[in-house]
Every structure is written in C-alpha cells, then in structure tokens.
TrEMBL record:
Residues 524-589 form the Transglutaminase-like domain. This is Transglutaminase domain-containing protein. SUPFAM superfamilies: Cysteine proteinases. It comes from the Bacteria. It comes from Microbacterium mitrae. The chain crosses the membrane at residues 7-27, 33-53, 60-78, 119-138, 145-162, 182-200, 233-254, 651-675. InterPro entries: Papain-like_cys_pep_sf (IPR038765), Transglutaminase-like (IPR002931). Residues 597-642, 789-814 are annotated as: Disordered. Residues 597-618 have a biased composition (Basic and acidic residues). Keywords: Membrane, Transmembrane, Transmembrane helix.
Length: 814
C-alpha cells in the first residue's frame, strides 16, 4: 500500500463513520453519543492498523476487539453508574449484558434513549467492529478491499434499522419540497462516496500494475487519449448523477404515503398481551364474596394524589370483547430513565402490589420516570413496557405480592365533555339496531354537549348490578359496600354486541310501556360498568368521537367507588374516554345509578331469558357463549376451547421472525459448506479422466490448506505431499503427475480409485484435529482465497507443447 492509498482510504472510512453516526443520531440524541462514536471509531481503527503491522492471528484479534468493546462499554456506556459510584459491580454487569440484550432492548425502547442503562453498548459494538473491518480491508490490496463498503453499509444500517418509525420533516426550498431530507442526504452521500472510492481504488490498482510492468520490461504504455478519457468520465458521471438524482426524487415521493417499517415496528410484548385475558372479561369476578375485600395494591404519595389510577386501556372492539389495541401506532416500548414530561400536575407515587396478578401495572397520568424496588426490581424493570398513547404499562413476567415501584408522572390538563368537539371519526363496528333506535329517540347533536346529555340519560335510566344471582345462603358483600343501594336486580355479564343489544332492548321496551305516563320511572337497563362503558363507547363513536374503555380505580368520589390508599377489588371501576378534535382524551364516568329501583311491574312482565346473539349483517359473525352463562358470578370460569387467532398469528409471526433470523445467522456458514460441496462434485465429475484426477489433487490440497497446512507456492506435487506427510500423499502426487505429463488415457475406474484415495486422505487429515478445529476447517475460506490468488496457467495441450519442443530441437540441430 502506498501512502496515497492509505490517506484516501482513511478519508473514506472517516467520512462513512461520520455518516453512520449521523444516521444513528435520532436513536440517542445526546452529545455523549458523539464522544462514544468518536472513541469507538478510533479504537477500532487503531486495532486494525496494529493487527496489520504485527500480523496477529484471528483469535488474538477477536479477543482484543472483545476486550476493547468491554473496556469502552464500562468507561463510556454507563455514565449513570459512574455518577452514582456503582461501576463495580453494577456497571460492569450491565456493560457485559449490553452485548447480549442491548440490541433487543434498543429495539423496544422509545426514542431518544439518551444514556439510559446500557443502550450505548450496541453503538460501541457497531462502531468498534465496523471501523475495524473497514480500515482493515481499506488498507489491503486486491479485491478484498471491496469488503470495506460492506462494513460501512452495516454501520449505516444500524441507524436505519434501529431508528425512528418516521422520517425527518420535509424541507421546503422555494417551490420544491424534499421529503425525508436527512435520510436522502445520507443515502446519496454514502452511495456517491462508496462509488468514488471503489473507482479510485480500481484506477490506482491499474496505475500501479502498469508501473510495475513498465519497471520489469522497460516498455512504456501507450499514451492515453485525453479527449476520449474525458468523454468517458463525463458520460459515467452523468449516468451516476441522473441515477442518484432520480432515486432521490422518486423514492421519497413513492414512499411518502407508506409507514416506515423498522425493527422497533414489529418488536415488543405483543405475544404476552395477546395471550393475556382482557381485564374487562373478568371484571365481575372482583365482586364475588371471595374477592370483594381483597387488597389489590396500595399507594402512598407526598404530593397531590392522582385523580385516577389505570390498569389497562382497551382501544380495540370486535363485537365480542374489548381488547388492548396493538398496532404500529400503539406500541408498548421500554422506558428510558426519564421520558419527556408534559404540562400538568406532577406527582410521585409509590405503589406496592398485594393480590393483584397479571401483566397490568397500576399507573397514572403521563409517565416521566419509573423505578422498581426490591430484590425483583431488575427483572421487573427488564419486563416493563409502556404505551404513552394509552398511558398504561405492563410487566411481561407479571407482578406479584410484594413488588413495589415509584412512578413520577404528570396529569395533563383536561377539558369538560360539554366543550368537546367531534372529530367525525368512524365507528369500529356497527352497533345493534336497538342502540341506534334509542339514540335517535334522544335527538341529541353530534357534539360534546349532546354526548354528555345522552350519557346522563343512560346512567339515570340504568341500574347497577354486579351479579346474575345472589350467593345461595349468603349475602352479597358488594351490595353492603354501596350506600343507599335499592335492592338486588339480576343482570348478565359480558359486553358483546348481543349483551349491549339486550341492554337497549330493555330500555326501549320499558319506555314504550310507560309512554304517556309522566310519573313513571324510566329505570330499566340493568348492568354494571362493564356494559355501560362499552355502550357509552359505541354511542360516542356514533356521534363521531373516538372512544376507548379504561379499567382502574378512582381516588376520590362522593357516590362512586374510590380508593383512598388501599385499593380493594370492590374499588375497581370501568370508565370510557373519548377524544376531542384537538387530540385530548376526556374521561367519562359511566356507572349507572343505584338508588332508584327498577319498577316491579316492568320486571314481572319479562322473565329472565337467554339472550341470543342478535348481530347486524355488517359485523363479522362470531358465536359467543350464552350471555346468561358468560362470565357469571356464580359459575366457575369455563375453559375456552376456541383458538385465539391473535395469539396464533402472533406466535406464527414470532416463529417466522425467529426462523428467518436463524437462517440469516447460519446463511454464511451454509453458503461455505454448499460451495465446497459443489466444488468437490464439479471436480469429481469432470469430462475426462485426467481432469478428474487433477481435480482430486486440488481437493486434497484444499483440504490440507483449510486444515492450516502450508499452501502451495513453488512446491512440486511430490514436495507438497512430503510436506503434508499423509499416508498416501506421495502416491497421489505420483499419479497426478503421471496423468498430466503422460499420453496415457485415464479410465473411469482409475479416476474413481484416485478419488477414493483422496477421500481417505481427507478423513486422515481431519481426524488428527479436535472437533472445534474440524469445524473451523470446514468453514475456512483459505482454499477459495488460494484459488483466487493462484496464477493462471496457459491452456496449451500436451501435444502442442511437445510439438513446440520438437520444433525447437530440430532447429537447434540444423
């Protein structure tokens, strides 16, 4: 390598590292990241230069790279542990774990991650190893220098694959708008830079080869036509500029209406959420005598108490059940040490779990920070995911008694439902005809005031009931906890469209019976928060409001259940949230009244009946269980034999992703094995016997070279066989020389016998090695490199060569 080649290669690698660092900037977005990238690149480049000067073997280089990465990780990737003085052992442990779990954690954490935990470790690994490989190949001659571009591409891909799900904001330049300007600029710069470097390397190699030939022969090459060279250069430059310009303009334009899919778009705890039962389905079990007085969790705060504590936000309804909405816009992600705060009242609350089970974690407001405590704190933190859009968190391994954590969050300012404006959103499902009929009869406008009015009417005409029937021989404890409760009324559980249809059918039938009677009570719809929250969501969607259902507890209320620090199962409640046109979510209490009883006359006219699934044609038909028996208070949970397609789909997706990842991981090794097998088959099936024997000798030599023996340089076959010292190596050399230099026609049996000896020699070579060396030999590329660097031989036949020698002898004698 010349000084000029080293200088140009260094400039190219430096520029590409800077571009790769810029591409990954949105992931971290902290000045400390610049220090990490610079230090990692310098260390990687230093090791590459040192390895070229000292000629270390591959194992020593690998160990040095690992040690350098770990040293940089401890020094730079865990600054929080340096500040707290816990570098040893906590910082060291987290740094080591970062190389194993860091990439997964990075893909599931909201951006930017800053210096959170050990998430700088992946950047250190990428830039140390990437710069090492790039410099190592940039400073060598020959075709291997092209691998520098591959190393640069890997570093650039790090920022693209682990980056944001959205691109940079459009850039307006006069009448033109450039979409994704940052990503476009990085792509153009990297492509042009790599093309220029490869072209320069090819030209430099050619120039030096011509210089070597001129020095050896004393002959000068013909002077190049300057005008023709300029034309070719201009034409090539024009083609590159047109191609890059067309790509830069067309790609953002063609993809501007599509979402940007990166690794974080598909990675998360979706499988755990899909497998978990929707908390609304088991809502009534909290009001059985066995559970009603259980302490689920408790909280303490030194500041202002949050108004509501939520367990789960359910945004997807399929007509059968309300579930957690899992899509690209509602991702559950890992939480850095702090999140960007929102304006509002900030509180710090310590929660302690008691009887609460499952993956749902009590939270409130918009999370700013969370700290898990106790011996299980690290595992809880590792399994914690947060959905900022829904304001809810989960722990993938589930919570248990004694788990505790501290949350700092802000409750943003909300607005009155009366002042809300409808965004005009469409409904998720077509509601029952009975709901539409009842809503039309209310004649309210599609405004926040209209929605508030109709919900007040629905709650006033409803009646609270948490059970299908009373416990035999016992008193329902939940009734005693409700002041001024008018008396038990039976109601079925469930919140399918069939159950909601039954609720509004009760309303319509009773209203038709008392029509004209001004003094009659309008109370007739019997149920609890489970049914009324879903009914409210369906009504809100009919009026154009996006709606979702939330299960949690209130911390203060005059008439509704509330938790004052020790949250019981009976304190659980369900409410509905609707979204204003400005994007603000507004909570709506939906619990029906409980002081005015249902008229006895109205109730005696209708015996309890099994509610069937009356579902409009527009809704996908699903056959739910009988609502009278579905999730009832007095019957044990029945085993659901149906297959949850969401779970199956999630499992299949993860199996596919894992399988694809395994294939990609093993692909290089399988490619080497397949290539060697194909090469051996081609040699063994050559057209003539002499070719098969020559191929057999080459197979014997390649096996020895891959096993670590000396490659052939100026050796004769006999000398090489003696060097390898295998049992039949000398015999193979003699037969190969005989086949090449004699006029004997080699039969198929002779070539087959030769190959049998070759295969026996191959086994003899590999049997001397341990299993790990055998694996390394099988995957070694030394034999391919030997074939690439072997000088080409003239393809003259033996008869032509003999004729030439005979002619020379004749001329000399004459």
């Amino acid at each position: 390598m010349t000084k000029q080649s080293i200088l140009v290669g260094s400039l190219y690698v430096t520029a590409m590292v800077a571009l790769a660092g810029l591409a990954a900037w949105p992931i971290y977005a902290t000045p400390w990241y610049i220090v990490v990238v610079a230090a990692s690149a310098l260390v990687g480049a230093g090791i590459a230069v040192l390895s070229l000067l000292v000629k270390w073997n591959g194992w020593l280089i690998t160990l040095l790279l690992l040690a350098a990465c770990l040293a940089l990780a401890v020094t730079l990737a865990v600054p929080e542990h340096w500040a707290s003085g816990t570098v040893i052992p906590d910082g060291l442990r987290e740094s080591a774990l970062g190389f194993v779990t860091g990439f997964k954690d990075l893909a599931t954490s909201p951006l930017p991650v800053g210096t959170y935990r050990n998430l700088l470790v992946p950047a250190i690994a990428v830039f140390v190893v990437g710069t090492f490989v790039a410099v190592r190949f940039a400073f060598v001659s020959g075709r291997r220098a092209g691998f520098t571009v591959v190393a640069v591409g890997v570093m650039l891909a790090f920022g693209l694959l682990f980056g944001r799900t959205s691109v940079s904001a459009p850039l307006a330049i006069g009448p033109f708008t450039i979409n994704a300007p940052v990503e476009t600029a990085i792509g153009i710069a990297s492509v042009l830079g790599s093309m220029w470097w490869l072209a320069w390397r090819a030209r430099d190699e050619r120039r030096r080869a011509i210089a070597r030939a001129a020095a050896a022969t004393g002959m000068r090459g013909a002077k190049q036509n300057t005008a023709a060279h300029a034309r070719r250069t201009a034409l090539a430059a024009t083609m590159v500029i047109v191609a890059v310009g067309a790509g830069a303009v067309a790609t953002p334009w063609m993809t501007q209406s599509h979402t940007r899919d990166v690794i974080r778009s598909t990675v998360g705890p979706e499988v755990d959420i899909a497998q978990a039962e929707t908390p609304l389905a088991g809502y009534r079990t909290n009001f059985t005598n066995a559970n009603v007085s259980s302490v689920l969790f408790s909280y303490t705060t030194t500041g202002e108490v949050p108004s509501r504590i939520r367990l789960a936000t359910l945004g997807a309804y399929d007509g059968e059940s309300y579930r957690v909405d899992i899509d690209t816009t509602n991702l559950y992600q890992r939480v850095p040490s702090t999140l960007e705060g929102v304006s509002g009242t900030t509180s710090t609350v310590r929660f302690e779990i008691d009887a609460l089970q499952g993956i749902w974690l009590p939270t409130f407001g918009q999370l700013e920070s969370v700290q898990f405590q106790g011996a299980d704190g690290p595992s809880l933190a590792d399994g914690f995911y947060y959905n900022a859009a829904a304001g809810t968190g989960i722990v993938t391994g589930g919570v248990g008694e004694g788990d505790s954590y501290v949350i700092t969050a802000a409750e943003p300012a909300t607005m009155s439902l009366v002042d809300a404006r409808s965004p005009g959103a469409s409904a998720q499902v077509t509601p029952p005809e009975s709901l539409i009929t009842w809503l039309d009869a209310q004649a309210v406008p599609s405004t926040g005031a209209g929605l508030a009015e109709v919900i007040d009417t629905l709650r006033a005409r409803g009646y609270l009931s948490h059970a299908l029937q009373l416990p035999e021989g016992e008193t329902a404890e939940w009734m005693a906890l409700i002041p001024d409760y008018a008396g038990f009324q039976s109601s079925a559980a469930g919140h399918s469209l069939a159950r909601i249809d039954a609720l509004f059918t009760q309303l319509l039938e009773h209203e038709s019976q008392v029509q004209g009677d001004e003094g009659a009570s309008m109370v007739s719809a019997i149920g609890d928060d489970e049914q009324f929250a879903v009914a409210t969501a369906l009504i809100a969607q009919q009026l154009g409001f996006p709606a979702r259902v939330v299960i949690g507890v209130r911390t203060a209320s005059d008439t509704l259940p509330a938790c004052d620090g020790e949250c019981l199962a009976s304190d659980l409640s369900v409410w509905t949230e609707v979204q204003d046109a400005s994007g603000v979510w507004i909570a709506i209490d939906v619990t029906p009244q409980h002081t005015d009883a249902v008229e006895v006359e109205s109730r005696t006219q209708r015996d309890p009946e099994n509610i069937t699934d009356v579902r409009p044609d527009e809704v996908t038909e699903v056959a739910p269980p009988d609502p009278e028996q579905h999730e009832s208070d007095d019957s044990p949970p029945q085993q659901n034999d149906t297959v949850d397609t969401a779970v199956v789909g999630s499992v299949l997706r993860w199996v596919g992703v894992g399988g694809l990842g395994l294939i990609l991981l093993l692909a290089p090794f399988l490619t080497v094995l397949i290539a060697k097998t194909a090469r051996r088959r081609e040699r063994a099936t050559a057209e003539d016997g002499a070719g098969r024997i020559a191929g057999g000798w080459e197979e014997y030599v390649d096996t020895a070279v891959d096993a670590g023996m000396v490659p052939p340089t100026t050796h004769t076959r006999h000398e090489l066989a003696e060097e390898y010292a295998t049992p039949a190596g000398v015999l193979l050399a003699a037969q190969a020389d005989h086949a090449q230099f004699s006029n004997t026609v080699i039969s198929e049996n002779e070539s087959n016998e030769f190959w049998e000896i070759v295969m026996a020699e191959r086994r003899a070579i590999t049997q001397k090695m341990g299993w790990w060396r055998r694996v390394r030999a099988a995957l070694s590329l030394k034999s391919f490199v030997r074939q690439l660097t072997k000088p080409a031989r003239p393809t003259r036949s033996r008869s032509a060569e003999r004729g030439k020698r005979s002619s020379s002898r004749a001329q000399s004698t004459s």
